[in-house]
Amino acid sequence: MPVIGTPWHSGPGDAFFQPHSRSSRLKANELLPGDLAFQADEHFRALAADVAPANHLEKILVKQVARHAAALDVAHASEVTILETGGLRATLVDPRVVPADNAQRIGAMTSPALLPLGAYQARHERGLYGAVRQLKHLQEAQPTVAIPVLFATEKECVEYLRSWQQRQPWTCLECGSTARCFLTGRDFFECACGKQSSIRFSTIYAGSHMPLQVWFGVICHVMCDRSICGSELANKLKVDRTTTIKQMMAKVGDALASPQADQRLAGVNQLLLSSLHKALIQQTNS
User: Fold this and answer.
1) What stretch of H or E contains 191?
2) pLDDT given for residue 162 in this prediction
3) What's the pTM?
4) How many CA atoms within 13 Å lie on the side-chain side of 208?
5) What's the burial of 76, exposed, middle or buried (CB within 10 Å: 0-12/13-18/19+)?
6) pLDDT at position 63, please?
7) Domain positions in the chain
8) Using CA atoms, how far apart are residues 210 and 248, in angstroms rounded to an integer?
9) From CA 216, how far away is CA 160, in angstroms rounded?
10) Helix, strand, coil share of the chain (percent; to 5)
11) Do the Cβ atoms of 70 and 124 come closer than 8 Å?
12) From residue 259, how far is each of 24, 42, 99, 229, 279 by CA, in Å?
């Protein structure tokens, strides 16, 4: 796999990540939380030029690496600020009791903001290394990894989408209630006021009569195989209408390129990433 740019080592045996030159507009110690999106874009452009993602799946992983790297940039800048602020606060201590240098060190290291910052850094470090490993495994083993079938039946697809919808925040547009029940026979949710909404609500599947199993199959193939054409995919999914499959492929591609990809695809993209990661690990260990 090409060497990709972030300032951290991914651990024994993995590639060493060499830092790209930063934008002259933002120095490492000047980054603010509001610069996170800008810094993520900077990382993504540099990483994409190095890695040249071959499909939507690889592009998503590169975006994940960039996002975690940017978050760690901001965290490192915040750590400097927290330590400096803690040290300044400690200068109020009577130097006759505690020497000034010691007071600054104690004040810096006992700042209450360090604990949540440490948890934030650890979370993004795990995310960064996990995404890098997935990308590395995918690029090395993709030709021998089969595109997974996430669900064997339409019923399983419906159950997944129902469960996913129930985990999302929801408010009835009619009465403002946040409570709803699932109507098993119709695959709809219903509010106490009688307002009903499809389990496909707020996703790219809304308004479509195509089975969810076909939709999920389109997502898997579009993410894993950029070269596949509409007619070939229609044959694989046993759908007669090639034009419809092409339209679905375009919708999936648009959703994957959107910042709201997880919402629009109801998390199926993340489910596929997890499934492929497990398959690649099993293949590596076998």
Assistant:
1) strand 188-191
2) 93
3) 0.60
4) 18
5) middle
6) 85
7) 28-144, 154-285
8) 10
9) 11
10) 60, 5, 35
11) no
12) 26, 16, 51, 25, 27
